[in-house]
Amino acid sequence: MITRMSSLFLRTLxxxxxxxxxxxxxxxxRAGYVRRAAPGVYSWLPLGLRVLRAVENVVRExxxxxxxxxxxxxxxxxxxxxxxTGRWTEYGSALFRLQDRKGADMLLGPxxxxxxTQLVKGxxxxxxxxxxxxxxxxxxxxxxxxxxxGILRGREFVMKDSYSFDLTDEGLAKxxxxxxxxxxxxxxxxxxxxxxxxxxxxxxxxxxxEEFLAISEVGEDTFVRSSDGSYAANVxxxxxxxxxxxxxxxxxxxxxxxxxxxxxxxTLVDWANGALDRTVTAADTLKNVLVKIRRPGExxxxxxxxxxxxxxxxxxxxxAAVEPAEVELLGDDDFAANPALVRGYIGPAGxxxxxxxxxxxxxxxxxxxxxxxxxxxxxxxxxxxxGRDFTPDGTIEAAEVRDGxxxxxxxxxLVSAKGIEIGHIFQLGRKYTDAFEVDxxxxxxxxxxxxxxxxxxxxSRLVAVIAEQMHDEKGLRWPREVAPFDVHVVIANKDEGxxxxxxxxxxxxxxxxxxxxxxxxxxxxxxxxxxxxxLGVPTVVVVGRGFADGTIxxxxxxxxxxxEVAVGEAVDAVLALARGEG
Amino acid sequence: MITRMSSLFLRTLxxxxxxxxxxxxxxxxRAGYVRRAAPGVYSWLPLGLRVLRAVENVVRExxxxxxxxxxxxxxxxxxxxxxxTGRWTEYGSALFRLQDRKGADMLLGPxxxxxxTQLVKGxxxxxxxxxxxxxxxxxxxxxxxxxxxGILRGREFVMKDSYSFDLTDEGLAKxxxxxxxxxxxxxxxxxxxxxxxxxxxxxxxxxxxEEFLAISEVGEDTFVRSSDGSYAANVxxxxxxxxxxxxxxxxxxxxxxxxxxxxxxxTLVDWANGALDRTVTAADTLKNVLVKIRRPGExxxxxxxxxxxxxxxxxxxxxAAVEPAEVELLGDDDFAANPALVRGYIGPAGxxxxxxxxxxxxxxxxxxxxxxxxxxxxxxxxxxxxGRDFTPDGTIEAAEVRDGxxxxxxxxxLVSAKGIEIGHIFQLGRKYTDAFEVDxxxxxxxxxxxxxxxxxxxxSRLVAVIAEQMHDEKGLRWPREVAPFDVHVVIANKDEGxxxxxxxxxxxxxxxxxxxxxxxxxxxxxxxxxxxxxLGVPTVVVVGRGFADGTIxxxxxxxxxxxEVAVGEAVDAVLALARGEG
Lengths: 582, 582
Hints:
By secondary structure, chain A is an alpha+beta fold. In chain A, 48% of the residues are buried.
């Protein structure tokens, strides 16, 4: 098809939109791909919609290739199924809730585990029907607290969500693997630079899960990779290699000291280097952070978290570690109610005396000696030995992860980077099939509870991610697989012959099945070239001054390379490029 | 592609669903095309989604053919634009409203005039950009009071809505005509039997509008056609041919009579035939129905509606006639407050005496004489002449339309039928461009207010309509253009050679680009044939007993015809059918 810019619904903007901070957002708006309709809610204009549909198609093809079957569920959903799994409440204010005219509670689907589970229960009853994988490419809704960066984190967005149903754990592992492979194929076709990280599964429930993160400075997710690249994990999912337990025999006894006004690790280290006969660093101290934790349906429990004093507690890691329990820092009221807890001087004993739970970083193992609070103002204990002088109630992954930390699998040290979540695959197990009692008749005549996987790809987000990773200072640059057009033909010569030549070229390309954007506007070549760079079609053909001499110009938007091609060979040259043979 | 029924997510049902009343609903559920998720909210299973997408594509191609440009707007919308046009309120409880986490009012878009208008205002500023037509194929939401018949009238549904923007009324008329033609092309391709009727435009505002109604006994819209078929209109839009005014000179004087207990037309006619020296029918009486009407922002006004006594007031026609005003029947309180209104004996004078407005049917013209109420209990006036004894404040189209009424354009008499609204085209004019002040710079340097058209097609509804019009007692029957598959190949022979032959045939068809549904299940031929009839793929190929003798069976689902074809010629025969050459 030929799309003429003279009548295309497209207005490029010279200036960045005021509310845009990240390059993809600026460029997608400036190039007329999307427009904001409400906070976190965007309209797709002709070029944007073409890219969105192209991304959808890549995803669809790869899902079909693993035998997943496409269906389409509604976005407007009844409350009951989400009530049954607890997610009506768990989603908190991220869920768009509404009532219909009869007062029935409804919601806009943020993800569809419940409905797919009910659907399979309704249709299938025998082991012979399994396994089955269903998917949809559908509009989803989440009332994000901070929608940002245009379509990168919207409140209405397009997602591919699929759900596998298997008879056995091995079957689930196979379905999971098939999705993992399909996602890798998708990202490869889209040209997205990504990393697969071990992830925690958040509100989704379930056990094994991995995230596909697009590597990007504007990402909101921090992940770490081992120096040889073989290990990668979401920071929340990093497992600290535990320290080696040591024999406590022969270690010096713990001694309490008056340390004066030393409520911080820095002041404590200063005191120790003055008062003790050794060099002390923050890593020799044990910092005890007090929080309270509440498991669903239970009371708050005061919890001390002991970490080496050179590290902070990373609250996101802490939250992930205790989920689905909630966690909060201890407030003034809590300290007032528990005089055993002396701020700035808290030790393991104080936590226990206050009836609390005491959890430690995995580095705090039996035989390690620490300088820590003595539970009296101005006092600390030196050489308090784990496993001898105190026994933690368990370990917790709450300490911050830092560049240079050892990778859990021994593949070197960790380096952190930023990423954008573009896919998430979960081995959910039986959380949802238990909630809805989804059994089929097994081969032996007994009921089998199905096991389930859930797999998502942010389709509209991928459009922004590709823009983010591929753009340059002049504008967008689309990989051929998702470009809104194959070729952008620019008339940059008012001569009648050149105009007719451009027209003929465009028609020949069209006849050959090439999607052509034809800049037939009465604008200056400069304006047209700038727009071509901004719009980012991979191949730009300029019918310009050289036409009189029998040549046209073929520009590669990605490499920036320019070729002079004889007019008679232009169609073949462009076709070769459009077919990826360039 | 080959879709194998052994692994297809499909379960056909023997029994009709309990909540289904119309054939399309029963069959689409029984054949596993759709499933109910909530009242008026449906999931599309694999076969249903294929038909839906096929209908979408036909609509898309025809919209593209008239130069309309596809975009995609959100479904979740801010309140403000709908507030600006009054539709936030006008839509009443048909609008799904919700609040986001910050308490901002939002809605689920029922139709998108406001957003498209704002979009064009934002992008375009010069007459050079016009005209432009934009469209989307998108999920819409209306909280129907009575969702019914599955996807025929859902609360979440897929619609194609387009919007034209023109500089002049002539331009709008041209855009409107282009849509009208495109809609006719779409219906022809889909094989839908339809009629185009003059319509009132309801809450949409604007002047000229027509509806595309699919002819169907299960339709909710009543329309009338003239006996020669050249006139058709929604009942609400029928214009009554006015009576011929006559000279009032020489007509008998009006005389009031004691008519006794005659509060109904029937009792009045009985009295008249006994008391007067002529034959009287209900058509000689003037029935005065009392209502109150409230224009937006004004007070209720008592209104008498005078219609020939052989006709009822059709409340839907009355509502359409007074829109956007509201109308209600007069209540006991109103009668109590207005003693001039004597129930059962109301005449034109009484309405005026009560300070009301008096409107009449267009048949009540100057010189017509009526028997009507004398505004006293037990009294009526005979020979009350319009234009002499009373002067109405105007006419109103509120009387029922009946089979046999004259067509307004003189093309015979009217016959009524039922239809399903599948398309609606509006010449909106400047209602929305006025609301948002959408001007562009005209050729003469002065601002030009744009004029607008709005055009909708119920895409998901069309799936039900096609099922409704095309089915037979055995199941669905799809036109090739939208069939979920081109060919349904059934193995009805357990012989290894036959199975291998079917497999080879299926692969050859697939290689030729035919979409094949392959019934490779281990079920009996009877079960498979029943399912094939239920599913409704246009061509069914049976590899059965004849295979040993070198033949297969090719069945036409539409005509029911069966052909024996030599195995070697099977692929060509099926290809010819799939290409519509059969």
